[in-house]
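Good day; I would like, with your permission, to put a structural problem before you. A protein sequence and the structure tokens that stand for its backbone fold form the material at issue. I would ask you to consider whether the tokens describe a fold that such a sequence might reasonably adopt. I set the record out below, with my sincere thanks for your time.
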Amino acid sequence: MIKRLLICFVLFFGTCRSQVPTISDEEIYDVINYVIKVKTEHIKNIKVITEDVNYKTHQSDDYFLDIKILKNDFNQKDIKSIKQQYEDSEGFVLNPKYIQNLRIVHKAKLLAYKSEGKHFWDEFNKKHGKTSFMFVGKPLFSSDKSKVIVSYGHYCGGLCGNGERVLLKKVNGTWTLERKLSGFIS
């Protein structure tokens, strides 16, 4: 009896986790390199990249994953998968193997500039020169990997920067902007 319960338990929870598609590093960095290209075409002095510094900080998960927004573009299976990917992305760090032409400074190190008791931008400029930095979150894929949500942006000073959360769609093997979901400007 216990053996049957254990088998049912494993099958049930195994199928729940299988809602999340297997996503390779190449697929993740295909999206990330697309948004790097888009951002650096418009902002020329970006020399540094980091993980999304806004991940789970000033907003609740409900805001980030607003069902009213997601249900316009995704079915229930996709929404469940995207929510799980979001939860699983907490420890995401950029891999230098896939990032070209930008210096990676991981989020923990970057945020430590402020905690050292000094002005963040003074420390940043001392270590990296008078430049700006870009941030990018881990892309969240639809079940069929034809659509993705990704957050990205840049900061260039105390009240200088912008960011957005966008929906990208793969068209003929290339990511294209479907629409902007939310954003900020400073």
Notes: The longest strand covers residues 160-171. The first helix runs from residue 2 to 17.
